[in-house]
């Protein structure tokens, strides 16, 4: 069993400010290299209720999967008006989750699916304990869930950030992956962004989340089975095959994005690093620098497919903390149910009940459409930048 590497190189141009919220939750400010913000930050002076009790997990004996029952999440805020945005910098009229103005900020979720406990008497006792099958099995949903605010603005997404700000967000992902992987009871760390009300987003503020699970997720367990069958070169061979084909969307020195051979969703793009990297924590500064440019460009292209912004889930799959880190490669999977300007793909009986997918769009045609949109968006951005330079 190989474990998380201690290798992590922080970008010293990005300052960190560590604080504690009124109810004991951790909060960290990440400042852009060219920030105009002062180093001092206000304390959280709110009077808050105690944090909810840690949820409990129940095992489905038919699949072996664990389901966290987090009833406290029913009370979370739903699409508030801008003046009551809980992720905006705090004001007297809106005592929000973030006491001061910020560039990027990360804090523990107020209503987590996992945590705040990291261990207790009924916590999982390792992966073997979780793999056993039985009736009525429960465990404490230990772990941690964090919110990553990309900007103090009320609306937007990763695509609406500057390259500098995108780089700060990526630095936060890398540092938090490094820190969360070292918490007791954490088996896998998952950064992601849900974008759009069609996906189920409850806050319009540009943000993502990081889940730290007490188990290896079902999707990753299936990946391990594929590695066992195919061999340890699976990711390298997928990358080489896609780079030689006609589904590549964009590529740089360190990363390549492509529509996968067996795409399930009408819009689906994967991105892989060019070398074996188990997670964000082991990326170099150069890899993070290029990713800020390419990932932003990719999402701006996906937004350019239609006149209105595209709903999506941007999922950063990382290797488990203690399993197959030499074989499982960091991988982005962006998926959207949008199959036309005013139509969404809903999971019907075959997909939702049986997990048997039927694709609506030929992957090669989807790649050509997305590639054209990426080029179009890049040209529009270049023209806008030229206009600003002349102004």
TrEMBL record:
Annotated active site: 207
GO molecular function: UDP-glucose:hexose-1-phosphate uridylyltransferase activity; zinc ion binding
Keyword Zinc: yes
Pathway: Carbohydrate metabolism; galactose metabolism
Stretches assigned to the Galactose-1-phosphate uridyl transferase N-terminal domain: 59-216
Protein's GO biological process: galactose catabolic process via UDP-galactose, Leloir pathway
Annotated EC: 2.7.7.12
A GO cellular-component term linked to this record: cytoplasm
PROSITE patterns referenced in this protein's UniProt entry, alphabetically: GAL_P_UDP_TRANSF_I (PS00117)
Skewed-composition ranges (Basic and acidic residues): 41-50
Cofactor requirement: Zn(2+)
Region annotation (Disordered) ranges: 31-59
Catalytic activity: alpha-D-galactose 1-phosphate + UDP-alpha-D-glucose = alpha-D-glucose 1-phosphate + UDP-alpha-D-galactose
Domain of life: Bacteria
Coiled-coil regions listed in the entry: none
Keywords, in A-Z order: Carbohydrate metabolism, Galactose metabolism, Metal-binding, Nucleotidyltransferase, Transferase, Zinc
InterPro entries hit by this protein: GalP_UDPtransf1, GalP_UDPtransf1_His-AS, GalP_Utransf_C, GalP_Utransf_N, HIT-like_sf
Stretches assigned to the Galactose-1-phosphate uridyl transferase C-terminal domain: 233-371
Assigned protein family: Belongs to the galactose-1-phosphate uridylyltransferase type 1 family.
Name by which UniProt lists this protein: Galactose-1-phosphate uridylyltransferase
Organism: Cryobacterium tagatosivorans
Encoding gene (name): galT
């Amino acid at each position: 069993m190989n474990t998380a590497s201690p290798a992590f190189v922080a970008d010293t141009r990005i300052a960190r400010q560590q604080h504690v919220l009124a109810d004991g939750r951790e909060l960290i400010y990440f400042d852009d290299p060219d920030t105009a913000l002062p180093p001092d930050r206000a304390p959280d002076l709110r009077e808050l209720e105690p944090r909810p009790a840690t949820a409990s997990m129940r095992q489905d004996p038919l699949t072996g999967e664990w389901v966290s029952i987090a009833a406290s999440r029913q009370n979370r805020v739903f699409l508030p008006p801008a003046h009551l945005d809980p992720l905006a910098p705090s004001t007297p009229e809106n005592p929000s989750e973030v006491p001061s103005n910020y560039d990027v900020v990360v804090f523990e979720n107020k209503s987590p699916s996992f945590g705040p406990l990291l261990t207790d008497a009924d916590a999982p006792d390792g992966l073997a304990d979780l793999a056993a099958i039985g009736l009525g099995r429960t465990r404490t949903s230990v772990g941690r869930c964090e919110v990553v605010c990309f900007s103090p603005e009320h609306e937007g997404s990763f695509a609406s950030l500057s390259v500098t700000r995108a780089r700060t967000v990526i630095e936060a992902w890398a540092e938090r992956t490094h820190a969360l992987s070292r918490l007791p009871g954490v088996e896998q760390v998952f950064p992601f962004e849900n974008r759009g009300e069609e996906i189920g987003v409850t806050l319009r503020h540009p943000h993502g989340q990081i889940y730290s699970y007490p188990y290896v997720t079902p999707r990753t367990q299936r990946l391990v089975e594929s590695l066992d069958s195919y061999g340890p070169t699976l990711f390298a061979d997928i990358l080489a095959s896609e780079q030689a084909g006609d589904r590549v969307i964009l590529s740089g020195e360190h990363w390549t994005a492509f529509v996968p051979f067996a795409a399930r969703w009408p819009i689906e793009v994967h991105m892989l690093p060019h070398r074996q990297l188990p997670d964000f924590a082991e990326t170099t500064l150069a890899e993070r620098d290029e990713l800020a440019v390419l990932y932003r460009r990719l999402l701006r292209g996906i937004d350019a497919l239609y006149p209105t912004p595209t709903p999506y889930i941007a999922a950063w799959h990382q290797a488990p903390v203690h399993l197959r880190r030499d074989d499982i490669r960091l991988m982005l999977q962006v998926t959207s149910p949008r199959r036309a300007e005013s139509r969404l793909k809903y999971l019907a009986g075959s997909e939702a009940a049986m997990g048997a997918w039927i694709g609506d769009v030929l992957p090669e045609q989807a790649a050509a459409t997305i590639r054209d949109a990426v080029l179009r968006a890049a040209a529009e951005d270049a023209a806008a930048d030229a206009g600003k330079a002349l102004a």
